[in-house]
Amino acid sequence: MTRRLNYWLLALLILFGVPFYWYFIDAGPDASRPKPVTMAQLRSLADTKSGERPVEVRMETIGTRWVMRNRLVSGWGLRQTLTAVRSYELIVPGQNPIVIDAGTSRKAAANADLLGFDSSAQKRVDKALANASRVILLQNTSLHNGGKPREKKKPVRGLGDLEPRAVAPGVVEIPATELGPRAKLVYAQLADGQEFLFTGPAAKVPESLEMMKPPARAAAPEYAPNYRAESKAWLMTINALRKAAPDMTVITAHDSGQIGDVMEGFSD
């Protein structure tokens, strides 16, 4: 009886344990390598455009939602953790602001199980978007683009579209298109030299960088077939950038905590 029970337990372990490990715990192969992006390169690009640089970073929190930890970082666990949907505003003296991410809509928030959708915060974001000198989306999906449907067709890219490029004085876009539709990171250097890196989908939460693991296979989006390998490569890249610039503020895609050197609430 005991032997038969052991066989049954072993069969159940194989039947359920192996797929669970594969889809939720395994971090994947270790063949990823950092991207050829350096702090020297980003700082040099930030200097290529003349004019006023941003002097302040502000943010609005549109809503929060609970997400299973394994869906953010493979092997992190089955418990849920709080994540946020946010939009950021770079204040430029004498000019309209630069807005990073457009928030979402009430419908898209409901579809994503977003808690406490803050319509007032979204209205402030919409007002900033209407007056912005530039809008940068970290990813063209509904929790970043104002609630529009996800871009289904892969955009046609030019030869230079995969290279970091300055888009404003002190502001550099870093394409990461293998992570999703028009995915990117953004580097910003303020007038006082303070540095920020918005990771977009390259790092979901701070724990992504601490544990150096991509989201679980079960959470890999179908529109990005190389997502986990690319995610690991970008996590390695971000940590290399952090090592080269230890005072830089790194803002992950769905961090729900307080962020140092970022002011709450968009400007009037």
SSE string, helices as H and strands as E: HHEEEHHEEEEEHHEE
Radius of gyration: 20 Å
The helical percent reads 25-40%
- Broad structural category: alpha/beta
How confident overall, as mean pLDDT? Answer: 86
Number of helices: 6
Q: Note the overall shape.
A: globular
Task: Write out the strand line-up for the largest beta sheet, numbering strands in chain order.
Answer: 4-3-2-1-10
Distance, first to last CA: 74 Å
Number of strand segments: 10
Strand content: 15-25%
Outline the biggest β-sheet. 5 strands, mixed
Low-confidence stretches: 5-13, 155-160
Q: Brief overview, please?
A:
With 268 residues, the protein is α/β, with parallel strands linked by helices. It is built from six helices and ten strands, in the order ααβββααβββββααββ.
Q: If you had to describe this structure to a student in words, what would you say it looks like?
A:
- It is a single chain.
- The protein has 268 residues and is of the alpha/beta class.
- 28% of the residues lie in helices and 21% in strands.
- The strands form two sheets. A five-stranded mixed sheet has the order 4-3-2-1-10, covered by helices on one side. The chain has a five-stranded mixed sheet with strand order 5-6-7-8-9, covered by helices on one side.
- Strand 6 (171-175) and strand 7 (184-189) form a beta hairpin.
